[in-house]
Amino acid sequence: MHYTLHLTNRCNLACRYCYVKKGQSDMTAEMARRVVDMAAETGGHHGIVFFGGEPLLCWEQIEETVAYAEEIQRTGKCYFHFKITTNGLLLDESFLSYACRHDIFIALSHDGLGNDTERINPDGTGNRDKLEEIAKRLLSCKPYAPVMMTVTPGTLPRYADSVRYLYGLGFRYIICTMDYSAAWRESDLVILKRQYRKLATFYREMTLREEKFYLSPFEVKISTHIRSHNLRAERCELGKKQISVAPDGKIYPCVQLVGDPMFCIGDIWLGIDEEAREALYLLNEREKEGCERCAIRSRCNHYCACLNKSATGDITKVSPFLCAHERILVPIADGVAERLYRGRNALFIQKQYNDMFPLISLAEDKTVR
Amino acid sequence: MKIEPLRSYDTPEYPTAEKFRSTDVLTKYIPRRWRYNKWVGKVLLFVVLTGLCSCSLEKGEESGRHTEPHHIAKTGSDTETHHTAETGSDTETAAKRNLVIPLFVHGEGRGSYGCVSIAPPVYLSEDEAAQVIRETALEYGLDFSDRGNVYGEELPYTNIFPGGDKEPGTYEGELPLDGYDAEKQIGFVYVSKNDVVSWHKQGEMMASVESYDMQGTAERLTRTLTDTAVFYDPGSDFNTFMELQNSAGENADWQELSEEYEAMEKARMLEDLRAQVVDFMEWLKGEGII
């Protein structure tokens, strides 16, 4: 289970597409410890994810929480891994060396070439130049840190170039997501198709060159076919594999639903309201209107409650843009996979069919480092 | 925009994990980058021994003959043979090197036709080029005397008219190799001016001026082909012609000047092409293939 701690709803950026309900609230140290206790009570292995707002505004809180979790870990009752998602602007040498010592996984948000269009400072200026330095610093400590890019209608024409740019900066794990809440137009779909075609060529090139490379839109869609017998394992299942804890201690099933009372499924003091969680889960499991007969519904993101909520305001209502996006992406991803498979590309086959690929990849890093 | 369910969708032509496990075996496909990594080797051994993945050596022996070829090589006797190993799993690994071979640049690799041209056209023919490539390769122990085809790839269309796309898309088709070493399972393609013209994407736009980008086309081909070296016509240098013309003076015989220019440029172009092949051979040495 992953526990996402929304340490604060403050942020030092003013991204135009941000879904976080901004404020001045921070989670107290006691509340963060309580979440760690909740995880420890169930034993096993858990992820603690530091999120925001901008979590690095609460660095002390992170240190305290990690120290507390490590103390529990030493008893052998429970094991934790830590992750932080940050905009990077406060990512300095001292935090990086702390993150390396405590094995904290760092994901950086960066919108590539379109960064300064949407992902801006509160005064409206951009921060891409500064981020280049930060990215270098991050990658020198953590060479496989993922980068998370949001694509908006404004940045769409440079989607493929942005991926190449991020690759050029040194990122090898590139996670892309569309801003589904934006006002997408029919004309954007033509551009989207062109961009995915360019990305497919890039993906193929990287695979043929046997580069260590992960490009989420393709990996995820290819995986939905390869693992079609076990798709449930790939899904978040709304509150069953991860929960988000707001700065006020309320629990939500997803980061994008934080702050909406309709989706509150408990709090850290009384625990998870199983009835509420199950009701939400079942509501989301219902087949979405219009999707019943779709031939690719099992491979589509239409089951993702938070995407639906951000796009249509209703977790059960699918956004037409999401539908169009999937109809464009799935055949392109399949096309590139078919070509790589037809050529029996060894890296492609290992990456997609070997469940132990992450472990082997880790062993490889040991030598590379 | 509205929700538009897809009424039908063809099953992709790559297997699901279950299908793969029942018909194939992972240990047949070891990426090059893993082969000399002792840590990866240890993990792979552990994985195979503990059965943590679907790797099984017996299964490998059973299914080793199902691999579809990437190249189909034609031997001298014109019989088609799959160059992926039908003979056993050891050679199969060699067949599936999936080498991405870089382009070795010697020569601008450009030419033109029409009013933009200021020197007589000089190009190397397929035969002239093949002879140099084969002879040079033979010096390094590579015998390109077989022929073959590459199919199912994203082969580049070209554009020969000014103002159009530099990269006018790709097509899926078949490309004859200009030479193939059946033992090393490496082929080559030589991109001639005629290739650039014949791969031109037919469109509405036409012009009386044509330009040929052999190097650019070759570069695009290298992005898509594996186990195949791409060489290109190095192209002539019009400056040589200008120098000749200047030194010959106003009364120079055009015919003689052209012939001298052609002879000089051909010699240089053949040297450039040979340099491309030598670079490739040195690269193969570095990769431990020859």
The most extensive contact between chains is: A-B, 57 and 49 residues
Order of helices and strands of chain B: HHHHEEHEHEEEHEHEHH
Shape of chain A, please?
globular
Q: Could you give a short account of the major beta sheet of chain B? A: 6 strands, mixed
Structural class of chain A: alpha/beta
Mean pLDDT of chain A: 90
- Number of beta-strand segments of chain B: 8
Topology:
The complex is a heterodimer of chains A (369) and B (290).
Chain A: E1 2-6, H1 29-41, E2 44-51, H2 59-74, E3 78-86, H3 93-101, E4 104-109, H4 115-118, H5 128-141, E5 146-151, H6 159-169, E6 173-178, H7 186-208, E7 214-215, H8 216-226, E8 242-245, E9 251-252, E10 266-267, E11 271-272, H9 274-285, H10 305-312, H11 320-342, H12 346-353, H13 357-368
Parallel strand pairs in A: 1-2, 1-8, 2-3, 3-4, 4-5, 5-6, 6-7
Antiparallel strand pairs in A: 8-9, 10-11
Helix pairs in contact in A: 1-2, 6-7, 7-11, 8-11
Chain B: H1 17-23, H2 32-35, H3 38-50, H4 57-63, E1 71-74, E2 80-82, H5 89-95, E3 110-113, H6 126-139, E4 146-156, E5 170-181, E6 186-191, H7 193-198, E7 210-213, H8 214-224, E8 228-232, H9 238-248, H10 254-286
Parallel strand pairs in B: 6-8
Antiparallel strand pairs in B: 1-2, 1-4, 3-7, 4-5, 5-6
Account of the 3D structure:
The complex is a heterodimer of chains A (369) and B (290). With 369 residues, chain A is an alpha/beta fold. Chain A has a single domain, classed as Alpha-Beta Barrel (TIM Barrel). Chain A is built from 13 helices and 11 strands. In chain A, the strands form 2 sheets. Chain A has a 9-stranded mixed beta sheet, sandwiched between helices. A two-stranded antiparallel sheet of chain A has the order 10-11. In chain A, helix 1 runs parallel beside helix 2 and helix 6 runs parallel beside helix 7. The longest helix of chain A is centred in the middle third of the chain and has 23 residues. The mean pLDDT of chain A is 90. Chain B is of the alpha+beta class and 290 residues long. Chain B is built from 10 helices and 8 strands. In chain B, the strands form 2 sheets. A 6-stranded mixed beta sheet of chain B has the order 2-1-4-5-6-8, sandwiched between helices. The longest helix of chain B is centred in the C-terminal third of the chain and has 33 residues. Chain B is flat and about 85 Å long. The termini of chain B are far apart. At the A-B interface, helix 7, helix 8, helix 11, helix 12 and helix 13 of A face helix 1, helix 2, helix 3 and strand 4 of B.
